[in-house]
Design brief:
CATH class of the largest domain: Alpha Beta
Strand content: 15-25%
Radius of gyration: 22 Å
Structural class: alpha/beta
Number of strands: 11
Oligomer: single chain
CATH topology of the largest domain: Rossmann fold
Distance between the termini: 26 Å
Order of helices and strands: HHEHEEHEHEHEHHEEHEEEH
Number of helices: 10
CATH superfamily of the largest domain: P-loop containing nucleotide triphosphate hydrolases
Shape: elongated
Strand order of the largest sheet: 2-3-1-4-5-6
Protein name: GTP-binding protein gtr2
Helix content: 25-40%
Bound molecules: guanosine-5'-triphosphate
């Protein structure tokens, strides 16, 4: 039997559901927001389709001096080892960099000492194309001044650029005890929310994350920031939900391989450990792939595309997480930029491997329609 052919055991009702999604995908570029997305106060869906578009998801890093802006940009988008951030020099002017991957991200950094309210700066130039402002607060330092600056920024953005999401990173939490970390986070969030409420900005699109460059938290937080800017997110979540129920998958993530940012996951509750373990599997597969890998067919399919119907040339891996083998990780490359990583808790998913491969093949085809790669 061909590797991806459906077996007789396939759960046909779930399969039909996944197929129906495929048929409805002409709506994928303008997904109908679900009620919770429609009611969301966050601004979603303003970044056009991936690489085809000249537009890029643009993030602006802001915060006081030495809060960690360049470190975050270096570690997440430029693969800088966290220990080397100790030697970063102070940023003196507005800087901008891009990361070329599945989506071409643009990251700008506004140095802490720059007063962007001053008439010397063109605010339209600074904030005109920004999707999200990431405000970084050093949780190991005194933060009252930072909170005042943050409040001024939020109120300014709410008035002048109401479409920009504000993402507050309570940063450097690695140096704090668990209790102190949670207290600090709660204190910062409460102060900001109270002030905003007093000023009449209860619905300002502000969210809070605890981050550190020394663990996965910074990647997880940036993933959430970027997901809010993806117009395809509701479609991707529905597809992943459907895949999970078809194949009894516990948790599924769609990762950007280069940055290890996940651009979507199914909507079941998640814990940080699931993200960490899936993200680590990508590292392992990338390392092994560098030794034993082969040149991938081009994504645009123009030349030398050798893919078969379900892209049989894709890299894939299935490993067990425990000695007893009750938990499995499954990774499959979707194209040169994206990988699907799933956690399965089952006695023996190898028995259902054909079903999983088939459904993942259908998911992959749906993805190619959502992002219009051939
Ligand atoms: N413990 C800890 N230190 C961090 C973290 N992130 C950054 N740092 C350290 O914080 C210091 C300042 O980091 P930078 O990235 O240079 O800060 P910045 O905001 O860009 O600073 P300016 O360019 O001066 O505005 C460096 O020594 C980093 O190693 C973190 O998550 N945890």
């Amino acid at each position: 039997m061909p590797r991806n052919a459906p077996s007789k055991d396939i759960d046909t009702s779930n399969n039909e559901r996944l197929m129906r999604y495929l048929q409805d995908l002409h709506q994928a570029d303008h997904p109908d927001p679900s009620p919770e997305h429609a009611a969301s106060r966050f601004h979603t869906g303003r970044v056009p389709n991936g690489r085809q578009s000249g537009n890029k998801p643009r993030l602006m890093l802001m915060g006081q001096r030495r809060s960690g802006k360049s470190s975050i940009s270096g570690v997440v988008f430029h693969k800088l080892p966290p220990s080397e951030t100790l030697y970063l020099e102070t940023t003196t002017q507005i800087s901008q960099s891009s990361m070329h991957s599945f989506m071409d991200f643009q990251i700008a950094e506004l140095p802490g000492h720059i007063d962007f309210f001053s008439p010397d700066f063109d605010q339209a130039d600074i904030f005109g194309n920004i999707g999200a402002v990431i405000w970084i607060i050093d949780a190991q330092d005194q933060y009252l001044d930072a909170l005042t600056q943050l409040l001024n920024t939020i109120t300014y953005l709410a008035q002048e650029w109401p479409n920009i999401n504000v993402e507050v990173f309570v940063h450097k939490v690695d140096g704090l005890s668990e209790d102190f970390k949670n207290d600090t986070f709660r204190d910062i969030r409460q102060r900001i929310q109270d002030e905003l409420s007093d000023l009449g900005y209860d619905n300002a699109p502000v969210s809070f994350h605890q981050t550190s460059i020394y663990d996965h938290s910074i990647f997880e937080a940036i993933s959430k920031v970027i997901q809010k800017l993806l117009p395809q997110l509701p479609t991707l979540e529905s597809l992943l939900n459907s895949l999970c129920s078809s194949c009894r998958i516990q948790k599924a993530y769609l990762f950007d391989i280069l940055s290890k940012i996940y651009i979507a996951s199914d909507t079941s509750p998640q814990d940080t450990t699931s993200y960490e373990v899936c993200s680590d599997l990508i590292d392992v597969v990338v390392d092994v792939g560098e030794i034993y890998g082969w040149a991938r067919p081009p994504v645009d399919g123009k030349t030398g595309d050798q893919r078969t119907e379900f892209n049989n040339h894709a890299c894939e891996s299935m490993v067990t997480m425990e000695k007893k083998g009750h938990k499995y990780l499954y990774l499959r490359e979707m194209n040169s930029y994206l990988a699907l990583v799933c956690i399965m808790s089952d006695d023996n998913p190898m028995e259902r491997k054909v079903l999983i491969d088939y459904n993942v093949g259908v998911f992959q085809e749906a993805l190619s329609k959502v992002f219009q790669w051939k």
